[in-house]
Structure formats: structure tokens, C-alpha cells
Specification:
4 strands; Rossmann fold; alpha/beta; single chain
């Protein structure tokens, strides 16, 4: 389905170091939004500065690539004040990073801050597991989780855009 709306949404996915979950979410959401006909600006960032400029973890790249999505060109960055004005939605991968995002949010920020699973009925407030210290299988399982959240988010944004068009 293409041409759902002319409204362009912007979404920022955030995890701790911006090399595992948020780059996978960025890639998965970009593909899902395109497939759904949503015109979105999509990016990812971390709350910490551990990996600034680094590509995603090789296991994240591999699992995304296995699903036909290329994320190897992404570079880790840290969330910044401008992001709270630039993006409509800032999506945390877990509750600890949600708190870190809220702590950085300027009073006049316009972004809506939530967790990925807040878009999935019955999973609100659930964290996406961090596969960083795990195995390739952990990355595969996290990919499955992220795709569930991304699917819910795409549906939520389609409904939001439909509401704006009324």
C-alpha cells in the first residue's frame, strides 16, 4: 500500500550504545514503513557515548541482512537536545533508556516519548531484550521482538495520520 498520507512522520529509536537494538529497529521500521506506504524520517541514537561513530554490532548487521535489510552504513550517535524538536516520536528500547531520555528532554521538547512495545496491546512497558552480551541467537530473538514492536508502531502511526487527515 502506498500513498497512505502526505503527512511525514519522524521517528528516533534509542537504546544505550546505538549499536544493537536501535539500529535494528531503525532498519526494521524503515522497511515496514516503506511497505505500509508511510513517508517517515527515521534515525537511531544512544543515551551513552560508548560507541560514537561506530557501525552497528556485526551480529546486528548479520541478522538484519538475513532479513533483507542493510544497516551496516549506520553510525552510532548520542541523543541530543535538537532531537526532541526534530522528531515526532522518540522510542526507547527499554525502561532504563526511557528514563535517560526523559531526563534529557527539554521542557519545550515536542517529541512524544515512549517505549517500542507501548504500540503493542498487552505488551506496554515491556523492554526489548539487549542482546549485546549474548549470542547470534540472542540477536535473532531480539530481531523478532523488534519486528513485533515495529509492526505495532506502524499501525499506530497509520491511525495517527488518518486522525490528522480528518
Amino acid at each position: 500500500m502506498t500513498g497512505v498520507a502526505n503527512q511525514r512522520m519522524s521517528v528516533l529509536f534509542v537504546c544505550l550504545g546505538n549499536i544493537c537494538r536501535s539500529p535494528m529497529a531503525e532498519g526494521a521500521f524503515r522497511a515496514a514503513a516503506h511497505h505500509a506506504g508511510l513517508d517517515c524520517i527515521v534515525d537511531s541514537a544512544g543515551t551513552a557515548s560508548y560507541h560514537l561513530g561506530d557501525a552497528p554490532d556485526h551480529r546486528a548487521i548479520a541478522v538484519a541482512r538475513a532479513h533483507g535489510i542493510e544497516i551496516g552504513g549506520q553510525a552510532a550517535r548520542q541523543i541530543k537536545v535538537q532531537d526532541f524538536h526534530r522528531f515526532d516520536h522518540i522510542i526507547a528500547m527499554d525502561s532504563a533508556n526511557l528514563e535517560g531520555i526523559k531526563a534529557r528532554a527539554p521542557r519545550d521538547g515536542t517529541a512524544r516519548i515512549s517505549m517500542l512495545f507501548d504500540a503493542v496491546a498487552g505488551r506496554e512497558g515491556v523492554s526489548v531484550p539487549d542482546p549485546y552480551h549474548g549470542t547470534a541467537d540472542d540477536f535473532s530473538n531480539t530481531w523478532i521482538e523488534i519486528n513485533e514492536g515495529v509492526t505495532g508502531l506502524v499501525q499506530q502511526l497509520r491511525a495517527e495520520i488518518a486522525g490528522l487527515m480528518r
